[in-house]
Amino acid sequence: MYYCYIDSPIGELLLAGDDEALTMIGFPEGKMRRKPASDWVENKQAFAEASRQLKEYFAGERHEFDLPLRLDGTEFQILVLEELQRIPYGETTSYGDIASRIGRPKAVRAVGAANGRNPIPIVVPCHRVIGSSGSLTGFGGGLDAKRALLQLEAEHNRSGLL
C-alpha cells in the first residue's frame, strides 16, 4: 500500500492506495482521521493525478473526479457509495433520498452507516448528504470540514467545468 499527504484548505489529507486505485482519503480531524500502517510506503508519485484533481477541486476548478477507485464494503455499502457519486456538485440530498434512489426506502439508518464509513470522502461526496431537516449531520472529517466543503461548492457551482 502506498500513501502520501497533501495540503488542503481543510487540513492535511492522507491519500492511500495501490498501483491500480485510490482506496482511502483520511482527514486530519474527526472519526475518519487515519495514519499510515507501518508497512505502507510513502510515494507521492503514485498519487500525482489524485493530488492534481483534488487541488483543482479545492480551487473550484473541478466539479467531478476521474480517478480509478476501489470501493470497499458489503454489496449494500458499495451500492450507497456508487449512489453518492451521482449527487451533483454543489447540491445536497438526504439519507432518505439516497435510500429511495437505491430502492430501499426504509433503510435510512443503514444508508447513514454506509455513508459514514465511506473510505474515499470528497471524491465520493458523502459531504453532500445532510439531514432531512436540512441540518448538517455527522461527517468523518468533522462538521467544520463538511461546512467548508459545502461552502466551497456553493461558491464555485457554475456549469461548464470538469
Report what the structure shows.
With 162 residues, the protein is an alpha/beta fold. It contains five helices and six strands, in the order ββββααβααβα. The chain has helices at residues 48-58, 75-84, 95-101, 108-116, 143-155; strands at residues 2-6, 13-17, 22-26, 41-42, 93-94, 129-130. The strands form two sheets. It has a four-stranded mixed β-sheet with strand order 3-2-1-4, with no helix packed on it. Helix 2 crosses helix 4 (108-116) and helix 3 crosses helix 4. The longest helix has 13 residues, at 143-155. It is globular, with a radius of gyration of 15 Å. The mean pLDDT is 91.
Topology:
Layout: E1 2-6, E2 13-17, E3 22-26, E4 41-42, H1 48-58, H2 75-84, E5 93-94, H3 95-101, H4 108-116, E6 129-130, H5 143-155
Parallel strand pairs: 1-4, 5-6
Antiparallel strand pairs: 1-2, 2-3
Helix pairs in contact: 2-4, 3-4
